[in-house]
Every structure is written in structure tokens, then in C-alpha cells.
Amino acid sequence: MADEIEFGTGGWRAIIADTFTRLNVERVAQALADRIHDENQEHRPVVIGYDQRFLSPEFAWWAAEVLAGNDIVVRIIDRPAPTPMIMWTVRDLGCAYGMAVTASHNPATYNGLKVFTEGGRDAKVEITEPIQHRANSISPKDIRRVHRTDALRDGVIEVQTSMNWYIDAILDHVDLEAIRHAHLKVVLDPMFGVSRTCLQTILMTARCDVDTIHERRDTLFGGRLPSPNSRTLQTLAQEVVERGADIGIATDGDADRLGIIDDQGHFLHPNQILVLLYTYLLEDKGWQGPCVRNLATTHLLDRVAEAHGQTCYEVPVGFKWVSSKMAETNAVIGGESSGGLTVQGHIAGKDGVYAGTLLVEMIAKRDKKLSQIYADIEERYGRLEMVEDDFSFAPEDKEYLKRRIYQDKDLPDFGLEVDHISDMDGVKVYFANGGWIIVRFSGTEPLLRVFCEMPVAQMARECIDKVVKHYHFE
């Protein structure tokens, strides 16, 4: 059987009914079960949860039946749940592994699996690669399963529907009294995903005035990508302005990524959110420690860290690298320009629900409009602008492009003085003026991604245009 299962930076994602099928999901579940038995971890339960995508509940139950058929106890969260909640449950129950059926922010035609390890962390490549290889070698006759009715009767599958423990964990980390007395108005946009119940409950417990849009289940996500960005959040921006809200909070399909609209109706880039929260944690909460970012994330974090006598560490793309470096360095915050971040003392993975709650706390504690808070930051640390673009390519051209970019380092002449070049992940050029550009292949989609950060957006756009012309993506 062909190697149809391939894990990338955010788990395994594929088109439904093409390679994301019941059989392939069961093959991954069987491979995970075999690994659990090899490690003698079968006495520890496996947590499984799912998002709002087409057939996600069914895929989750099929995976659970295979694990149960291998005498592994499964705790299935039998309602659409945020990925960070699934990760938190893995940590809270002391599980060796967990699994989420989700394709995060990918198009509606996709679904996928994320695997988590002890502590609620994204599985490292050292774990996903062996699972991938083993899954691709499993034939249908190798799969052991038990029907859910029998598994439920025998207690091999346990059902959880409550979100209370995860919600309470976040409430315990924020200053509820400060938020209660601020009388804030919030508009939520779950983007037809899974964050509505958690965010509504948390913010209404803190006495916020909460309005919600796009809250029902729609497996087509309203015809848009369930990815919070300036294009997909135009309706949220309008609602914030029309309702006179203090903040608009959006989360992607599985609620691990965050998008923010400020009180003026302006989209805040994830880079800005990271800078806001790192500054807040250092200056208002009095925390001490470095930060971690991937190499496609703003260098403004470096300026904030340096101003406070701290270090900003750079890692490859993929949140598992961020969380690992955070654990190694005891960092305060870690994140990436695609909208994912985590904070010390919570789970080691991305959590849009917790991050959004912290921003609400920040507005309440500082007693300023969100737009003014960020204006103050720019006045202190300056301004950097990021431009990003994606380019699709024919599958047969991938190896040619990889060789040209990664091996030959065949880059355009940007007309700027180059400080140095890194091949940690893709190719990143650091310019003498403090700007940079990175060219890398997506780990989850057939795309070439280009990110560029400069003092002004026009300079960044011009650099990306040179990449487009050089590689003939016009």
C-alpha cells in the first residue's frame, strides 16, 4: 500500500475521502497502539477529541475503537472541543498520549490528526515519524478493533462531555476581579469552530458583555478558511465598530490560533499580539524570563526582550520547537506569526482561548483602549511591518525547487546589504538594516511560504516581489 500518511509540522492533514479515510485513520490508531504496547504504557489512558469538521466525530470514534481493540483505555471527549482543551486533558490525566481529529485552519475539504505526548505537548518528529512509517505498513487485516457499544460496556472507552476543568484552569490564571470591574464589551467569532462555549463561559463569568457571531456548526466554515486574518475577519471588525466593543476575539477551526480586532476595528497581526502579551507579562504581572519565537515571527520581540535584560530565542517552524525551547529556557511566552502562542504555567501548546482571555485582562488592568496600548509599544520599540505570501506549485516541481532553494541557495538580489543567511528551516536572509526574509515549504500544504519583515511594508513587498520574479511564480 502506498505511503499515504505523512505527518508535517502540524500533524497529518489530508483531503477527506482522498487519503484522509476511515482506513488510514485506523492505521494511525493501530500504529499508536503498537507503540504504546512497545513502551509498556497501556495502563495509561489515551485522550481523543475532535473539532467541527465533516465526519470528525466519526473519525474520533473509529480511532477510539481501534485503541480499545488493543486493550488501551480511551477517554473520548464526545463534543466538539478546542485542541488546547484536549492537550490540557492529556496533561491533567497524566496520559502518555492524546489525539485530536482536526485540520485546524486548513480548507473545509481537509481533515487531520494531531498526536500529543506526555504533559500535553505536540508530538516531536522523533515520535510522529515512526508512527507514520508503521501506519503506512499496516494492512487492514492487522487492525484490531472493538465496537464502541462493547467498549463502553466494558469500560475500555470512557466518555467525557464536560469542559469545566479546562475552563476553571483558565479562570484560575486570570484576575477576574479586575475584569469584572472594567465592564468590557467583547465580540467573539469562533469562525464556526469550537471555542464558543469556553470563551463565552470564561468572559461571562468575568461579567463581560459578550456578543457572538458565526457560532453554529458549518462544516464549510461559511465558505472561508477557518483562519483568523485580516481578510476573514472583516465581519468581526464591522461588528466591533458597530457595537462599540473593546475587542473582537476570533479563533481558528480548532481554537489553538488567535485573531484580534482592536477597538478601532483594526486587525492586530499575531506578531503584535505576541509583543503585547510579552510586554504585559513582564511589566504588569512582574514575570521574568526570555521569550521564544519561530524564525518567521517578528524581531520586535527581540527588542522587547533586550530592553528588559532578557533573550529572545529563535527556533524552526512548528510549535513543538517553540514548546521544547520554552521548557529548556523557562521562557515566559512562546509563539509564531501564524497566530499560535502559549504562556508559562499553562499547556505547552498553542491556546487561543487562554491568550484571548489574557488580552481581555490586559485591557482591564491597564484601563486603556487596546489601540492605545499598542500605540504606546510602538512609541517605545519602533515599528516593523511583515508581509507574507503563499505560492502553489506543481507536485513534480517540488524537488527541483527544494534543490534550487535549499542546496544551491539560489536567491534573488534584494539590493540590500546582507548580514548573514540561515538554513535552520528553509532559507532565511538577515539584512543589515534589521529586516529579514524567509523562503520555506509549508509543512501541511503544497505551498511555498515567503515572509518578510522590514521597517515599512513597501520594502517587504518589494523583497517578496523579487522572490516571485526569481522563481517564476508570476
Task: Describe the protein.
α1 (22-38) runs parallel beside α2 (56-69) and α10 (270-283) packs across α13. This protein has helices at 22-38, 56-69, 83-92, 125-136, 148-154, 164-171, 176-180, 196-205, 234-243, 270-283, 300-307, 319-329, 352-366, 370-381, 398-407, 457-470; strands at residues 7-8, 11-15, 46-50, 74-77, 97-101, 110-117, 121-122, 157-160, 185-189, 209-212, 247-251, 258-261, 267-268, 291-294, 312-315, 333-335, 341-343, 385-392, 418-422, 427-431, 436-441, 447-454. The chain is built from 16 helices and 22 strands. Strands 1, 2, 3, 4, 5, 6, 7 and 8 form an eight-stranded mixed beta sheet that branches. A five-stranded mixed beta sheet has the order 10-9-11-12-13, sandwiched between helices. A five-stranded antiparallel beta sheet has the order 18-22-21-20-19. It is globular, with a radius of gyration of 22 Å. It starts with 6 loop residues before the first strand and ends with a helix. The protein is of the alpha/beta class and 474 residues long.
